[in-house]
Amino acid sequence: MVDERRDKDITRAITYGKGKSRLEVLEKMDKNKASATPMTGPMYSAKEFTTELERIDKELVKQWEKDDKVASIRIAIQCAKLLNDVATPMFYPQKFILLTDILDTFGKLVHQRMIKLTKECSKGRIVITPENED
Questions:
Q1: pLDDT by residue (tens digit) across 11-24?
Q2: What is the rounded CA–CA span in Å between residue 85 and residue 110?
Q3: Residue 66 falls within a domain, yes or no?
Q4: Using the 8-state DSSP alphabet, how is residue 16 labeled?
Q5: What's the domain range around 109?
Q6: Contact assessment for residue 115 and residue 130, using Cβ atoms and an 8 Å cutoff
Q7: What pLDDT band is residue 37 in, cutting at 50, 70 and 90?
Q8: Opening angle at CA 72, ends 70 and 82, nearest 5
Q9: What SS3 class is residue 67?
């Protein structure tokens, strides 16, 4: 049932939807940026961050070998999310390389598993060679 008074009431508030309210929030954040408090997260040096990402890479492989694919996927997703963090522009190129190496490792593990499953499930009917692999 449509309220006919709705269109006649010119004093009611008009809602623009989530996009408008999100825009207002972002504008307020921009205005308050100068007075914003500094980030409260832990600060890493480049060497500490590199060491941490190397540990994460090893953890990814370890979880994959333990057959915990969900944990491996979570690690890969977190690495992909870290690529979006550009808070330290001077450090980003090194960060990009390290994170894409981890994601590349994950991709290779998935590819190897797909080849293994194809060989097992096809019972030799599908022959995978380096020429037709890609």
A1: 554 444 555 566 66
A2: 25
A3: yes
A4: -
A5: 45-134
A6: no
A7: very low
A8: 115
A9: coil
54 within domain boundaries = yes
Residue 46's contacts (CB-CB under 8 Å, 6 or more residues apart) are 91, 94
Q: What angle do CA 96, 63, 45 make, to 5 degrees?
A: 35
| Residue the block writes with tokens 């998935």 | 110
Mean pLDDT of 53-57: 92
For the chain, the domain total comes to 1
SS3 at position 99: helix
Question: Helices 69-82 and 46-65 sit at what angle, rounded to 10 degrees?
Answer: 160
Which amino acid belongs to residue 23?
L
What 8-state DSSP symbol labels residue 43?
P
Do the domain assignments include residue 1? no
Q: Are 50 and 98 in contact (CB under 8 A)?
A: yes
- At 62 the pLDDT is 95
- Angle between helix 92-122 and 46-65 (nearest 10): 10
Handedness of CA 40, 44, 50, 53 (dihedral sign): negative
Q: Indicate if the pLDDT at residue 5 is higher than 50.
A: yes
